[in-house]
Write a structure and sequence with these properties.
It is globular, with a radius of gyration of 25 Å. The protein has one domain: LCP protein (Aminopeptidase, 3-Layer(aba) Sandwich). The longest helix is centred in the N-terminal third of the chain and has 31 residues. α2 runs parallel beside α7. The protein is of the alpha+beta class and 335 residues long.
Length: 335
Amino acid sequence: MVSRKQSKRKKFNKKKVAIISLSTLILLCGIGYLFRKELSVFAFNAVLKKDVKTTLNKSYKPVGYESQSPKIELSEPFSLLLLGIDQREGEPSRSDTIIYSVIRPKDDKILLLSIPRDSYTDIIGRDVTSKINSAYAHGGAKMSIDTVENLLKNKVNYYAAVNFNGLKDIVDAIGGVKLPITEVIENKNPIHEKLRVEPNKPIYYGADALSYVRYREDSDFKRTERQRIFISSLMDKALEMKNISKIPELIDIAGSNFTTNMDSEFILNLAETVYLKDSAPEIENYMLQGNGKMRGTTWYYDIDPEDLEYAQDLITSWLSSNSNDGNLLHPKNMD
């Protein structure tokens, strides 16, 4: 027969076990919350990384100089040429979006320097002077890189070319993006692609986001500004993603519309570095300044020589590993 004293001891032990179990659960939940990003990365590496790497490898398209270039360490600043390719039936592929970006992983900063697509410059490899977006049409990423390097007098470490046709699916897959549209955006010129975007929506999905980027009836300044805003919004939404199981879907969508000379290991390491930060990278923007000019029957954008020199200095500052918050050159106001 169990004594009263033994019964009390058993109840006490059960209560003690329950308290310890509850305390342990709370502790584990607390650790899980505090290290939720690290745990997500661990889960990704354990379950998804191999398949994602396989898909990313299909997008790898070197331009010929990779084997001679020193390996970039993620602690060092590097440049990435972003090319938005507008592929339409019956027309050559042109880079309608050209953004020279500098990523400073250690500082968690990104510079986006927009080059207007109609900029009049030497096209390296063709011995002609024409619109900069024609370089991709005639020589792909390699000619675009050579032309941009010649214009900005700074190295392009990597490129990433994204076909606009895949943009809609990517935006839809992440659940849309926030865009600061306060009035109707509409192409009214009959020679332009028909599009219309309504203002003040809380979220914009693929078709509207693509129209927002493509709209062309205001100015180069506004167009390139929209492109930079879209990139920032897309990055913010991607970093908000709670479900890592969506990553393979996104990679699959992007895979057939994306080419780069960054290898899969570098991309994944960069993504992990960015994701583990407490906030999204700080993005600073600039656009090459100039004026439109007709040459014959064609409209071009003439870059201001003094502004071009300023942009070259800006990039040099951002690419320097010796630059810090105290001496880093920040983009001047473009108003």
